[in-house]
Amino acid sequence: MLDILIIGAGPIGLAAGLEAQREGLSYLIVERGCLVNSIYNYPLNMTFFSTSERLEIGGIPFTSLNAKPTRAEALEYYRRVADSADLNINLFEEVQHLQPEDDVYRIFTSKGEYPARNVVVALGFYGIPNLLNVPGEGLPKVRHYYFDPHYYFRQKVVVVGANNSAADAALETWRKGADVTMVVRQPELGSIKYWTKPDLENRIKAGEIKAYFNSSITDIREREIDIQTPEGRLTLENDFVLAMTGYQPNFSFLEKIGVKLSNDEKRYPQYDSETMETNLPRVYLAGVVCGGMDTHVWFIENSREHAVKIIKHIKEEQQAEKV
Predict the structure, then answer these.
(1) Pair 66, 144 in one domain
(2) Where are the beta strands (DSSP E) in the chain?
(3) Domains in the chain, number
(4) In the chain, which end has fewer C-beta atoms inside a 10 angstrom radius, N or C?
(5) pLDDT surpassing 80 at residue 291
(6) Contact 56, 28 (CB under 8 A)
(7) What's the CA gap between 170 and 192, in Å, rounded?
(8) With bands split at pLDDT 50, 70 and 90, how would you rate the model's confidence at 102?
(9) What average pLDDT is seen over the chain?
């Protein structure tokens, strides 16, 4: 019997494990992919907007070569956290369902089942992309994840999006020899790192990266795409589409286990902001999943305190039961 089963081995799931360990609670972290799977899937050359100390968990220092760490440095840090604390983690094991049984939960995974008194859902949002919902989106040339720019050398690449992911993909692939076109729904570029935005704006101004604003892709075919622009429809030759349109939490999993979601497009999950407990007794949310479709609200630096709140509440509940 576990005191806590933690779903997700991202930074906030690890933070919850560290807090549980410090409070002497039995716990298990279960992750469907690799350790900090979302960070692993970030672009190869990605640099965080946050400084290293704001990515720290459990009070364990994170030092990096520069003020803003890279993806590789973050992976190294979280591996060292997991090893130095000897965290109890099962990787490549997916949680499929929770079943309440009296005052405990039975958690069924792809590899077994576990009884636990409390469950912490620390799912990220990087696993389910927001789709374009246009014909041809299922073609192999359409990518919702961008990793390494070398792959696109001498290719005609369309990047969809206006924010950081789109900016990084456009600039990096262009610098590695791609013919890059951006398609942006908005009238201008969005929220982009301050050291990246002027670079992209200058490339667009110089005509080195083409950009269509107030525009959207309407059809994707093997060798070309259609774009609806303010001036009318445009057909371009195309080898790859990088749809950097954002991601969303696994709402179907939350609904499946019984967590209530708002009925509007934001799909906010129901939870107590003081304890992080959901409408399900002893089932807690932590991290970016708390924001519903507003995935920009919660980051590592402002959601790592969720772990502290949760473990504090669980300890208080345990002590109350003993009285």
Answers:
(1) no
(2) 2-7, 27-30, 89-90, 95-101, 104-109, 113-121, 128-129, 142-143, 156-160, 179-183, 210-212, 216-220, 224-229, 232-237, 240-243, 247-248, 283-285
(3) 2
(4) C
(5) yes
(6) no
(7) 12
(8) confident
(9) 95
Same domain, 20 and 67: yes
Choose among 196, 234, 192, 239: nearest CA to 213: 234
pLDDT at 40 over 90: yes
List of residues 6+ apart from 59 with CB closer than 8 A: none
Verify that 46 and 177 share a domain, yes or no. no
Q: How far apart are CA 278 and CA 121, in angstroms?
A: 10
Closest CA to 119 of 144, 101, 137, 141: 101
Which residue bears the tokens 């459990």? 58
User: What's the confidence (pLDDT) of residue 75?
Assistant: 97
In the predicted model, what is the mean pLDDT of residues 32-50?
Answer: 92
Same domain, 80 and 57: yes
Q: Which of 202, 222, 243 is the last residue of a domain?
A: 243
Q: Which of 185, 211, 243 is the last residue of a domain?
A: 243
Cα-based distances in Å from 256 to 78, 284, 322? 30, 15, 32
Write down the residue that tokens 């059809």 correspond to.
219
- The answer on 308 and 286 residing in a single domain is yes
Distance CA 176, CA 171 (A): 9
Please name the residue that has the structure tokens 């982009």: 192
pLDDT at 65: 92
Residues 21 and 119 in one domain: yes
**Contact status, residue 245 vs residue 160, Cβ threshold 8 Å:** yes
- Residue 9 is predicted with a pLDDT of 97
Task: Check which CATH number belongs to the domain holding 143 and give it.
Answer: 3.50.50.60
